[in-house]
Design goal:
By secondary structure, this protein is α/β, with parallel strands linked by helices. The chain has two domains: 139 residues, NAD(P)-binding Rossmann-like Domain (Rossmann fold, 3-Layer(aba) Sandwich), CATH 3.40.50.720; 161 residues, L-2-Hydroxyisocaproate Dehydrogenase, Chain A, domain 2, CATH 3.90.110.10. The strands form four sheets. Strands 3-2-1-4-5-6 form a six-stranded parallel beta sheet, with helices on both faces. A three-stranded antiparallel beta sheet has the order 7-10-11. It has a three-stranded antiparallel beta sheet with strand order 12-13-14. β2, α2 and β3 form a beta-alpha-beta unit.
Length: 309
Amino acid sequence: MARPKITVVGAGNVGATCAHWAAAKELADVVLIDIVEGMPQGKALDLMQARPIFGFNVEVAGANDYAATKGSDVVIITAGIARKPGMSREDLINTNKNIVANVTKEVAAQSPNAFIIIVSNPLDAMCYVAYKVSGFPKNRVMGMAGILDTARYRCFIAMELGVAVDEIQAMVLGGHGDEMVPVVSATNISGVPLTDLLPIEKINALVERTKKGGGEIVALLKTGSAFYAPAAAAVQMSEAILKDQKRLVPVSAYLQGEYGLNDIFFGVPVILGADGIERILPLKLSDREEEMLKHSAQAVAKTRDELKM
């Protein structure tokens, strides 16, 4: 039986790390695509040479031509210019709109049955571009944001409380930006509400740190942005689809009335399985969280409108 195939578009830090995590987990054969000649080929060969050491038996190939991606099951799009310190996410929009539109055309032509996972920023807007350009059904186009933002939130809670990260159940919803909404009312540590373990001002500080999680890393690195955790999140989504795991995770999904929103990609809890986004789940929120989610949706809708699509 042929192994599944994952294409990763963009062989920079995020893309190469996606290929690394996916190969190490033996999820699928991996194709790395980039416009820079030699770079995806070199990184793919380097990963292949790690196989005897770590013992994973999948193929990793690099290419500059989309013909190599033919018949992909999952396509992870990381291509686009990165945010630089002081640059707003919105500054990125037109450049990345054109990049994501071109990439989507190419991969949709080669792999008409693929699931598309967008990592490029501004995330929710780029999902909208891929959805419109691909013509794929809404269950097969999604954005990686909620899992990453939730991982940051869980990480900061674990660091604060000195507990194991896998004991922490949490969910971050909304747009992938400073208006994201960590859902404190649904956050618990093995069933114990976070509000029982930390005073509200400590929780508020963790929420703020989560919202600025990407910016904190950009400021520390000075050149470039986060890549280990974003890549891990995209690979977890790929795994949920390829292994039909039915994971309940937050992803940027196309909404048609859910959460009172229409014609927008927005971070919400979904069941992720072999059919991609199999269900969008309603989540009971506090009044304040509802208000914050509305505010986040306004910011995402504004960026969507700037796309003029």
